[in-house]
Every structure is written in structure tokens, then in C-alpha cells.
Amino acid sequence: MERELKEIPEESLLNETQAIRAEGYRLIQICATTVKEGGYEILYTFGKGYDEMNLRFHTDGKKPVQSISHIFSPAWLYENEIHDLFGLEICDMVLDFRGGLYRTNEKAPFAHKEEEGK
Questions:
Q1: Mind listing the pLDDT tens digit for each residue in 4-15?
Q2: pLDDT for res 114
Q3: H/E element, 5
Q4: Model's pTM, two decimal places?
Q5: Cα–Cα distance between 52 and 4 in angstroms, integer?
Q6: What dihedral do alpha carbons 44, 79, 38, 111 form, nearest 10°?
Q7: Using the 8-state DSSP alphabet, how is residue 67 labeled?
Q8: CB neighbourhood size of 1 (10 A)
Q9: CATH number belonging to domain 3-91
Q10: Using a CB cutoff of 8 Å and minimum separation of 24, what contacts does 29-34 make?
């Protein structure tokens, strides 16, 4: 079993994802988290047999993240989740719930909150 983690610039997400698809990998998951320094980390996990390939990049959340749902169709669910919970804009999703996938008491509950008094 091989596990690889590849740090990528956000701009190369589509090229990297297309290459992974061409190698016969499937999408396992997409995960987002806030980082202490500000911004977000997004991790994409792909599998082929018992091997895993992970792509990770950091974003400040100010510009939209490109959807990979036209390459891996199940990505629409993860991308809508990231949008609803973190407030990150995901552009060109195959299926966009426009913020209505989850019912939450507050909009984007895991997004970075501006410090009061600023």
C-alpha cells in the first residue's frame, strides 16, 4: 500500500486531477479545514487499488476554488458541503445547491470569523 501527499498550487488543481483520473484513480473524499494562520486547507484523496494519492493546497478564501465535479462527478457533494460549512466559493460545480445542502443555525459555521472590534 502506497500513500502519497502532494502539495500543489491551487492553480494546478484541474491539471493534477485530470492526470490522476487518467491514471485510473477514483475520488475517495474532499476535506476542508481552517488553518490557524488564516485561510483554509483543502485535501483531495484519490484511490486506486490499495494505493492513495492526496493533493493538498491552501487558499485564503478570497477567490473561488475550481470545481472538479466535471472530472469526478461525486465531487459535487463534497464541494457543496465545503461551500455551506466554510463559506468557500466553488465555481463551475455540476450540481450546485447554492448554499442549501445543509440547514445550519448560522451561515458557514466553520468559516473564519472576523475578530470583533476590527
A1: 999 999 999 999
A2: 59
A3: strand 3-7
A4: 0.89
A5: 6
A6: -140
A7: P
A8: 6
A9: 3.30.460.80
A10: 29/78, 30/75, 30/78, 30/79, 30/82, 31/78, 32/82, 32/85, 32/86, 32/88, 32/110, 33/110, 34/86, 34/110, 34/111, 34/112
